[in-house]
Design goal:
Length: about 270
Amino acid sequence: MELAGRHVIVTGAANGIGRALATRFHQQGARVVASDRDARALTAVVDALNEARPRSAVAVAVDIGTEVGNQQLVAMAEDAYGPIDLFFANAGVAVGTDLGTSEADWELAFNVNVHAHRWAAKHLLPGWLARGEGYFCSTASAAGLLSQIGSAPYSLTKHAAVAFAEWMSITYGADGVRVSCLCPQGVNTNMLNQSLATGQLGSSGPSDVVRASGAVLEPAAVADVAVAVIRDETFLILPHPEVLTYLQRKTGDYDRWLAGMRKLQARIVGT
């Protein structure tokens, strides 16, 4: 898909990867509906886009961790710019550690990292199927293809996000609905840096594992890769190409991969 003239929604657009995606899509000529719970930061993003190209971006502050929030987002975007061409379900949370994680954090992780994708698709698909085209993108994580040492909620929900994207592609790909799934490792975002600052599993945490696994990219570099993959209309968006190698090793010898992950946990987390 070429983005020029397209109507695009990006969730989690106030900061980090979401802000970079919204900016890059806008630079490609798209009309952007940017969504986030952080209304103040979101307004700053949209103001910058409209300064570059007047009346080309709209801010929608909703809670996409609810079905109502997703329904409102889709309806308000359609009111602003008409039929939606590309929906990028980017918003995510990184909460919790082991099985002692609170039920509230488990619910939050599933609502934002998984159910938000499902709720958005539920309200997008009727229009896409009627038109015979639409593009659904989601941000999962390398943790969704591999696993996340130190956080059960993050690992489970990101696996589920990848699975939902796969299901969408399998189920609706023949009907003109294209699907891509973003699975980065370390990216210089508030999510990664806050995890490092707070610390989990003793003196180290999931962010330390991420940093030890490869380069920490800037959000703009991730957005550049996303644009290229969307243009080619292929499934996996891998800003860290080594993730594919890790995935191949995992599926080639599961037990060896699990043993290696246990060694990595012992080395990084100190358990």
